[in-house]
Amino acid sequence: MLGGYVASVLAAGWITLSLAFVSLILAVVIGIAAALAKLSRSRALRVTATLYTSVVRGIPDLVMMLLVFYSLPALLNQAAQDWGYDVYIEFSPFAAGAATLGLIFGAYMAETFRGALMNIPKGQVEAAEAYGLGRIRIFWRILLPQMMRLALPGFTNNWLVLAKATALVSLLGLQDVMFRAKGAAEATAKPFTFYLLAGGFYLTITAISLFILSRAAKRYELGVKELAQ
Questions:
Q1: How far is CA 130 from CA 11, 35, 127, 134, 138, in A?
Q2: Cα–Cα distance between 205 and 184 in angstroms, integer?
Q3: Global pTM?
Q4: SS3 label, residue 200
Q5: Which distant-in-sequence residues (6+ apart) come within 8 Å of 114 by Cβ?
Q6: Beta carbons within 10 angstroms of residue 17's beta carbon
Q7: Given this model, what pLDDT does residue 134 score?
Q8: Cβ-Cβ contacts under 8 Å for 177 (sequence gap 6 or more)
Q9: Mean pLDDT for each consecutive 10-residue tract of the chain (229 residues)?
Q10: Which long-range contacts (CB under 8 A, 24 or more apart) does 190-195 make?
């Protein structure tokens, strides 16, 4: 019987991984957009991006998650009723969790990407503009490759925290590793066994991530040394 619960917990691993990767994609997209907005010449964009990162980083992750999952649908439903629409809006735990984590870690990614972009010599951009390259080509061909190398340490840290933060979504009812581990612990009266199993799962994710990202960092640094010679 115990083996069945262990298999159930581990089988939920793909839900946790899916949630982590979807959240990461959203965080990267939001982070790049917010970083570019912070460095733009438009004051309105700079103020909006600064307000976003300041507010999101100042609110606990769990509070943000409860606001998005419970409060936002209630607000939208009330607004729809006030405008005469007969609709009922409800978010799935996966969608609400992914959106919230993407929003939260997008703010942290924004600071990571902004710092990386600021360390790229401005002369490169000026030279590209002198050759007639447009802003999009400058970003994709010159800024993005260098930003990836410079942002990799901060990106690694954000990813590790994000992967562990996915456990919070179990509080919304998502049947991920943490949710199944809690259920198995209560059913078998063996909390240490199943919470240790859940901890081992997250530890495996972080260990594999560190290995892959450290290899990527070495590869990027190797390219820099070759150019310096």
A1: 55, 24, 5, 10, 11
A2: 21
A3: 0.88
A4: helix
A5: 34, 35, 38, 39
A6: 16
A7: 83
A8: 9, 10, 12, 13, 15, 16, 167, 198, 201, 202
A9: 85 94 96 93 94 94 93 91 86 95 96 91 83 83 85 93 94 92 91 93 94 86 58
A10: 190/2, 193/2, 194/5, 194/6, 194/9
